[in-house]
């Protein structure tokens, strides 16, 4: 069971960093041409969008600290990590309607996308690593931690390769791919870490 949890969480880290590479790179380059960045006569710089998730994390951190203990008890840590992958998928799924229009779209679309990315970051990165270390034998903590960060590095590398698809594929196809990958990862993680349902008739 521990090996399944470690495998599922490593996959989650890989997919999360793959999505992070898009949210911090290709997605912002896409927004340069597709997002109407004029607000009250002022053109919002692209660099501000890169800072937006960090600011949102700082604002949501107190809420995270207050709610997470209850959520971990009622939902379970592994399910929260899986929900983080679903949030990563929604980061791109929410942009799919914008592919139906040829004109620039509202800034709100990008804000919604980055908000889902922040939710994924708050759930996958800290909770995944905590559960990983809790599920690992003390003598293998160093190896498993290296595996976790190695999966993150691989995710960034593959994310860079996928980033090149934005200029080769239709945007809709890229967004569908980036939506599907975390969803598949969430299903795999939920399956690997599924806890058996206790029989109430058993002592």
What does this structure look like?
With 203 residues, this protein is mainly alpha-helical. It is 75% helix and 2% strand. The model is unreliable at 196-203 (pLDDT under 50).
Secondary structure blueprint with pairings:
Elements: H1 2-34, E1 38-39, E2 42-43, H2 46-74, H3 77-93, H4 107-134, H5 141-163, H6 171-192
What are its keywords?
single chain; 203 residues; mainly alpha; two-stranded antiparallel ribbon; 2 strands; 75% helix; globular; disordered C terminus
pLDDT < 50 runs, ≥5 residues: 196-203
- Radius of gyration equals 18 Å
What is the makeup of the main sheet?
Answer: 2 strands, antiparallel
Order of helices and strands: HEEHHHHH
- Major sheet: order of its strands? 1-2
What is the rounded distance between the termini?
A: 23 Å
Summarize the structure.
This protein has 203 residues and is an all-alpha fold. The chain contains 6 helices and 2 strands, in the order αββααααα.
């Amino acid at each position: 069971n521990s090996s399944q949890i470690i495998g599922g969480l490593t996959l989650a880290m890989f997919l999360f960093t793959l999505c992070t590479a898009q949210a911090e790179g290709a997605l912002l380059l896409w927004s340069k041409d597709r997002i109407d960045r004029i607000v009250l006569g002022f053109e919002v710089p692209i660099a501000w969008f890169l800072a937006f998730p960090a600011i949102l994390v700082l604002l949501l951190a107190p809420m995270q600290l207050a709610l997470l203990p209850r959520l971990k008890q009622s939902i379970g840590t592994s399910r929260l990590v899986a929900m983080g992958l679903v949030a990563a998928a929604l980061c791109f799924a929410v942009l799919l309607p914008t592919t139906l229009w040829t004109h620039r779209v509202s800034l709100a679309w990008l804000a919604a996308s980055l908000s889902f990315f922040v939710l994924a970051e708050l759930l996958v990165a800290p909770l995944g690593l905590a559960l990983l270390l809790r599920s690992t034998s003390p003598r293998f903590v160093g190896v498993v931690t290296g595996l976790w960060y190695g999966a993150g590095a691989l995710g960034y590398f593959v994310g860079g390769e996928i980033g090149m698809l934005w200029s080769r594929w239709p945007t809709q196809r890229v967004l569908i791919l980036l939506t599907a990958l975390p969803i598949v990862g969430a299903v795999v993680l939920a399956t690997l870490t599924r806890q058996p349902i206790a029989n109430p008739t058993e002592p």
